[in-house]
From TrEMBL:
<protein>
    <submittedName>
        <fullName>Predicted HD phosphohydrolase</fullName>
    </submittedName>
</protein>
<dbReference type="GO" id="GO:0016787">
    <property type="term" value="F:hydrolase activity"/>
</dbReference>
<keyword id="KW-0378">Hydrolase</keyword>
<dbReference type="InterPro" id="IPR003607">
    <property type="entry name" value="HD/PDEase_dom"/>
</dbReference>
<dbReference type="InterPro" id="IPR006674">
    <property type="entry name" value="HD_domain"/>
</dbReference>
<feature type="domain" description="HD">
    <location>
        <begin position="31"/>
        <end position="103"/>
    </location>
</feature>
<dbReference type="Pfam" id="PF01966">
    <property type="entry name" value="HD"/>
</dbReference>
<dbReference type="InterPro" id="IPR052567">
    <property type="entry name" value="OP_Dioxygenase"/>
</dbReference>
Length: 188
């Protein structure tokens, strides 16, 4: 599959499912564009911006156990694996696959974090195993990407603004960035 075919396949998922709401008052596409814009605003490199954009791509995949209107139970892991299958980096896959673990970590570690979650995030936390246990939290803290995992989670939490519509230029920006990134990976 060519880089263009991979990008077309990937973005066809957004065309097909991006309009769906998942209990947050925003569409999937609105949520993921907002997360990417937050990463960009903070000055992160394209790999991290793309991970922020793709972090919920697993909700669009056909396999996986449903959490009612809240999407797929294992969407984080499935999304990471899907991105690797298209040629994206392991780092990006880990960032995508970490945002649920980061929520579990933060609800364990930070008093009051749970109360800050949206109603939908509170509901999905139950499906996702609830707060981490101490041993898992310690191991999570030792991961070299730990700080970025937490960033991904915070962007996920913040990317639920109902008044930020997606414009075609937002999607084109992500497509171009994804294409450029995959081309760079293929050249290395």
């Amino acid at each position: 599959m060519t880089t263009q075919q991979k990008i077309d396949t990937l973005f066809e998922l957004y065309t097909t499912y991006g309009h769906l709401d998942y209990g947050e008052g925003v569409t999937q596409l609105m949520h993921m564009v907002q997360a990417a814009k937050l990463a960009h605003k903070e000055g992160y490199e394209e790999e991290v911006i793309l991970a922020a954009f793709f972090h919920d791509i697993g909700h669009f995949l056909e396999e996986g156990e449903e959490m009612g209107i809240y999407g797929k139970h294992d969407h984080d892991r499935m999304g990471g694996e899907y991105l690797v299958s298209l040629g994206f980096t392991e780092k990006m896959a880990k960032l995508v696959a970490s945002h649920v673990a980061a929520k579990r970590y933060l609800t364990y570690k930070i008093p009051g974090y749970y109360e800050q979650l949206s109603d939908a995030s509170k509901k999905t936390l139950g499906f996702q195993g609830g707060p981490m246990e101490a041993a898992a939290a310690k191991a999570f803290e030792e991961d070299p990407l730990f700080e970025l995992y937490l960033k991904m989670r915070y962007w996920d939490d913040l990317a639920k603004e109902t008044d930020q519509a997606v414009v075609p230029e937002d999607v084109q920006w992500m497509k171009e960035m994804g294409t450029r990134f995959l081309q760079q990976q293929a050249a290395e």
